[in-house]
Amino acid sequence: MKIDKYIKEMFTVATGNRSSDIYFLCQNRKYQIVMRTNKGITEYDTISMNLASQIINSLKYSAEMAVSEKRRPQTGKVFWRDYPLRLSTVGDVNGNESLVIRIIYDNESSKLNFQWL
């Protein structure tokens, strides 16, 4: 599957479910992708280390983060459609990199209606 298509599909699912975060977690020589929603954490996919590295590097490049830096924590931001995304990476002792993507939603849809007061 092409990287851009995979990323687009992942963000479409995440925003459709109103996920607040997407996690790329290295576990047992594979990457687990999980999404946090108001219902809890759900597994999205398990992918190879090679595919995960390509996706993470593509997102880091889009967010103007240092693609070659895998050990130090980094943060960046990028837009997907109308959604601002905040990216955060951190490396582990084995040289693997984890990524968290925070999806920022419009406050209008999450405001409480206090007209009854």
Automatic annotation (TrEMBL):
The source's domain of life comes to Bacteria
- Which SUPFAM superfamilies did the record assign? P-loop containing nucleoside triphosphate hydrolases
First and last residue of the signal peptide: none
Q: Name one Pfam family in it.
A: T2SSE
Family note: Belongs to the GSP E family.
UniProt source species:
Lentilactobacillus kosonis
UniProt xrefs under Gene3D superfamilies? 3.30.450.90
Classification via InterPro entries: P-loop_NTPase, T2SS/T4SS_dom
- Ranges for domain Bacterial type II secretion system protein E come to 3-115
Recorded protein name is: Late competence protein ComGA, access of DNA to ComEA
